[in-house]
Amino acid sequence: MNLRDKLRGLLVRLYARRVEGHLDHAQVPKHIGVIMDGNRRWAKAAGSTTAQGHRAGADKIEEFLGWCSETDVEVVTLWLLSTDNFDRPKEELVPLLGIIEDVVRSLAADGRWRVHHVGTLDLLPAGMQRTLKEAEDATSDVNGITVNVAIGYGGRQEIADAVRSMLLDAHAKGISMEELAEAVDIDMIGRHLYTREQPDPDLVIRTSGEQRLSGFMLWQTAHSEYYFCEVFWPAFRKVDFLRALRDYAARHRRYGG
């Protein structure tokens, strides 16, 4: 590392401390959703392979959760693999699945996080399904941040699964379709989502400069605040995280308005 890079790193750390010192910790979001975008573009810019880009993105997760643990964040949802990602070429998808499986094992072994899967299990390989089940069981008693690992996740699919679950539940209880139609409301559907009994995201962060949700938590983000960051996910820094929190704290949230 040359002198210029050292000075730049020092200035960034000093600036991060300044931003952190001015944060209103009473305004920290309880639930943060993260669309971790830009692994492939980061790899291309760095002259690395796509797999190396995904690995660098995976390595950023533990650091990010460490920053969250320094605040009052209670839930973090990490979008690791969408339902659309299954259309990627096999030579990219297979290594990516292996990297994601390593991430889940690492989160469970850390001991600080309660791991919870959100997504459609049926799309995932049997080995991945076992890893997720083992991670959830191993961390069920952990009192730290709940980490939702969104794997095989799509917002439309979640709503479809919620409606299907609601219908099957009504059938099992002997409730007629007419009775269900009378009783169904927002809260009932919410109780069948992947994130039932969790607070909705207060803040959604998307990296890489893309300004869209791409189907991320369509139901839960009705009143969320969004923060779009230009940097690619593997290059996301603590100062970027603190800027997102500062931006969130400065907003006056108007539910429904």
Automatic annotation (TrEMBL):
InterPro entries, sorted: UPP_synth-like (IPR001441), UPP_synth-like_CS (IPR018520), UPP_synth-like_sf (IPR036424)
Keywords: Magnesium, Metal-binding, Transferase
PANTHER family assigned: DEHYDRODOLICHYL DIPHOSPHATE SYNTHASE COMPLEX SUBUNIT DHDDS, DEHYDRODOLICHYL DIPHOSPHATE SYNTHASE FAMILY MEMBER
Pfam families (UniProt xref): Prenyltransf (PF01255)
Entry cofactors: Mg(2+)
HAMAP family according to UniProt: ISPT
Organism classification: Bacteria, Bacillati, Actinomycetota, Actinomycetes, Kitasatosporales
Source organism (scientific name): Streptomyces composti
Self-association state and partner proteins as the record states: Homodimer.
Record text on cofactor binding: Binds 2 magnesium ions per subunit.
Protein name per UniProt: Isoprenyl transferase
Keyword Nucleus assigned: no
Class of this enzyme: transferase
Active site: 37, 85 (proton acceptor)
One Gene Ontology molecular-function label: transferase activity
